[in-house]
Amino acid sequence: MSERVRIRLYILLTLYVYRELSFMGIYKILSGKFEITKGRLDYHLKQLCQEGLLTYRKSFPFLDGSRVKYRITQKGIDEIMEIRIMIEAHINESDSEP
To answer: What proportion of the chain, given as a percentage, has pLDDT over 70?
Structure first.
């Protein structure tokens, strides 16, 4: 699996778990797992938004300390569930082989 795919999948899974995070929140989580720059993360987030897997909202920094918050969409959740089903099927298939 390419690093691009792994990063995007990790972003989706992170937002599935946390529901909504700021750019820096996502960056802190991903930078512990990948060597990723803020520019590269921004690119991936924009691509996922364009694909309809994420949404974002601009917030007021004096209210919650962040300018942009990202959230997974229902389409993104559906993608994760589809991947989960494929993984489970693969595991079950591997378990049933002699």
So the answer is: 90
